[in-house]
Amino acid sequence: MNEIGKIELRTLRLEDYLDLKESMIRSYPDWANSHWKEHHIRALLDHFPEGQLVILADGVVVGCALSIIVDYSKYGDTHTYKEITDGYTFNTHDPDGDVLYGIDIFIHPEYRGLRLGRRLYDARKELCESLNLRAIVFGGRIPGFSDVAHMMRPAEYIEKVRHKEIYDPVLTFQLNNGFHVRRVLTGYLPGDESSKAYATLLEWINIYYTKEEAEPHRPVKSIVRLGLVQWQMRPLENLDALFEQMEFFIDVVSDYKSDFVLFPELFNAPLMAPWNSRPEAEAIRNLAAFTEPIRAKCQEFAIAYNVNIITGSMPELREGSLYNVGFLCRRDGTHERYEKIHITPSEVNYWGMVGGTEVKAFDTDCGKIGILICYDVEFPELPRLLADQGMRLLFVPFQTDTQNGFTRVQRCSMARAIENECYVAITGSVGNLPKVNNMDIQYAQSMVLTPSDFAFPTTGIKAEATPNTEATLIADVDLDLLTDLHERGSVRTLKDRRHDLYELRLKH
């Protein structure tokens, strides 16, 4: 698979048809006439355009989820695919129905393994909730059944799949995504030889469904979940070992449905060990060779685990100068670079690092965020410039060797949360690294910090990890509380500034 530039989830358009057809043919290679005709897609778009979802990779359709709304009481649990679709005309679609019925879902085989199918299922669930429908129902294939049909009946096969004794490429995935089997269907989809014409009737219940609600409830997301990695420095044999450790943490925070995962500053320092006998400036320039591969891998992880990854920081060698940089790898496949502006005396003396020049807030699917690397948070001008650009979440990856260094980062971060009416998430590395000069000891305590007012913790600390121990810290922050603070807080730091007396601006 080629490197993906951007992943996009949106509703299907008629002009997508040729891409859709190609992906479907590739997805069902052993199933004759597997693809939808153009008039089928046109009918679905005419009936229910918002129910037809597609995943695009660099502008090309690589997966889709098609659905209609039905009054389920008219069909019951023994219907066939042809009955529920009215002979594939989809005239059974009923805007006043109570169930979102899945017509089809697939991912192009070259794009499997990136959890795009899970993203489509999650989008269907959000649609079901936003339309205030009771459930999602569909008939599911069991393509692995043909291999064991001579040994067991479908019900036994389904039970073994449910208990992880047998893996089925379709049913296992559906069960892992929160669906349960209502019953076995016979003759549901003629022509599906690998399922022996059997199917599972699957259901996902919308726990927010309100029968009495007259108007559909469309919730607005204001809660953002943050995942912070308090990284243990340890010897690493190679880049693959680093990726394995990173993926462990990304997988963990993704399982908790985190919107962001934050790594510390220079967390990849163990890879410098082979050059420990060389001068520090040479060693870290060798480390810079890993930065682009790490960026590319994080971009892949962000797509696969559906989480925005902030890569802490890494050395970057550009036009002969050494910078301290990181990357925001969004879950849609895009990425942007940020850089450390202020370089500490130690970084200058040991490594010959230079400071960057770009100060900007980044757009994400959770609003505007800022990212400042360690020492930068000790300069109040930078967060204020980001706040003026709309930042509401500030991420601070840091690396401090002693507790007094950590105290500077922590206390300054607490001040920045109050001054700029924002949340600040800080995380660093812990433990010892005996074979890497200038990075041999670490001290850290990861925290999520808040403004100080009645809606927030009295200490200004939303959550904190145990100091100097490898850990993940997961916390929810409510962006609506910041809006209320800005307008009705006990003090209104941003609104009460005296612009008639002073101003702060970037020079370029």
Shape: globular
> Mean pLDDT, nearest integer?
92
Q: Tally the helices: what do you get?
A: 13
Number of strands: 22
Calculate the terminal CA-CA distance, rounded to whole Å: 40 Å
Low-confidence parts lasting 5 or more residues at pLDDT below 50? 214-220
| Quaternary organisation | single chain
Number of individual domains: 2
The name of the CATH superfamily of the largest domain reads Carbon-nitrogen hydrolase
Strand and helix map with partners:
Elements: E1 7-11, H1 17-27, H2 38-47, E2 53-57, E3 60-70, H3 81-84, E4 99-107, H4 116-130, E5 135-140, H5 154-162, H6 171-176, E6 180-186, E7 198-205, E8 223-232, H7 239-255, E9 260-262, H8 280-287, H9 291-305, E10 308-310, E11 314-318, E12 321-329, E13 335-339, H10 345-351, E14 362-364, E15 367-371, H11 381-388, E16 393-397, H12 403-420, E17 423-427, E18 429-432, E19 441-442, E20 447-449, E21 461-464, E22 471-478, H13 479-488
Parallel strand pairs: 4-5, 8-9, 8-18, 9-10, 15-16, 16-17
Antiparallel strand pairs: 1-2, 2-3, 3-4, 5-7, 6-7, 8-22, 10-12, 11-12, 12-13, 14-15, 17-20, 18-19, 20-21
Brief account:
The chain is of the alpha+beta class and about 500 residues long. The protein has helices at about 15-25, 40-45, 80-85, 115-130, 155-160, 170-175, 240-255, 280-285, 290-305, 345-350, 380-390, 405-420, 480-490; strands at about 5-10, 55, 60-70, 100-105, 135-140, 180-185, 200-205, 225-230, 260, 310, 315-320, 320-330, 335-340, 360-365, 365-370, 395, 425, 430, 440, 445-450, 460-465, 470-480. The chain has 13 helices and 22 strands.
